[in-house]
Sequence to fold (77 residues):
Amino acid sequence: MSEWEEQLPPIMREKLAKIGELTPEEKERMKEKEWLESILSKYYKGDLDSKGLWERLKGSKQSLLSMAQLRIMESLG
Fold:
């Protein structure tokens, strides 16, 4: 902890510490996003065809499917 942080009241130090922490939901979204990026990377490199991409994405959350759709559309533009 830096000198200026040590001079803060305990409540402010607590709040400052919490700002940097991710919620479990945020951690889960980041994990899903990384998974999606790895799948799309394989697809873009040609290691995965459209059928394989669909097999990997099938059963995923709607939000993840929407994100995949958006990323693919952006890559075409």
In short: The radius of gyration is 20 Å. Residues 24-45 form the longest helix (22 residues). The mean pLDDT is 88.
